Amino acid sequence: MKVMFIGDIVGNVGRGALKQVLPALRTKYIPHIIIANGENAAAGRGITASIAREFFEWGVHGITMGNHTWDNKDIFDWIDEEDRLVRPANYVAEAPGQGAAVIKANGKELGILNLQGRTFLPPIDCPFRKADELLEELKKKTKCVLVDFHAEATSEKIAMGWYLDGRASIVVGTHTHVQTNDDTILPQGTAYLTDVGMVGSKEGVLGMERKAVEYRFLTQMPVRFVVDEGKWQFHAVVVDLDESTGSARSITKIRWTEEDWLLT
After folding, report:
1. Which end of the chain is least crowded, N or C, by CB within 10 Å?
2. Could you tell me which of 137, 188, 170, 175 has the C-alpha nearest to residue 3?
């Protein structure tokens, strides 16, 4: 089974790139299941029901989230009904939505688990212990499980990769929007990448207009960050899984720019 995971989709530029590029990526890599992180999809903060529906119409089968999950208040109206979207599982038990799900597409099944880190992010329940709790339940339903660890600290992400080696099929990081170059298959068969990257403007700072970010660093004054509208970059990863064991056979990074796309 081939799984494609797409990094944080940021704002209008990111959504436009997804719509434009995904058909070609499906032809090139032939993934059975496509998962995308959508926590920055609505103007850089959160997601809406209409955006989620667009992603599904374009060919995404499941959506993971992160620390901006609740930024668009309409999510409270529909998250409990949308079983193809997961938010960090280590939020408090009373939080709406679900932290794990089994996605079915093209005759295949993939468990997805969303976790959020605690280093340099708001303190919530332990992602490691939550992984212990929920992975066992997911593995009863399918041997193939993807974990999106939405975290700031590289060390926390790497620790999670080693912690879940042999238990999860794929452990990928999101949140920092910069694709790392440490894609590997760990000794017990887990495909790992510290951060998948992002889909959004490559001319801003992590997808945001750079002038506002520069002003913040220069003055330490509060400033509203706005999604940059420059040329896009598209970051994702494709993992080939052995369905009989849940182990990864290969992991391939995808790194396209708008200029690359125009030359194809």
Report:
1. C
2. 170
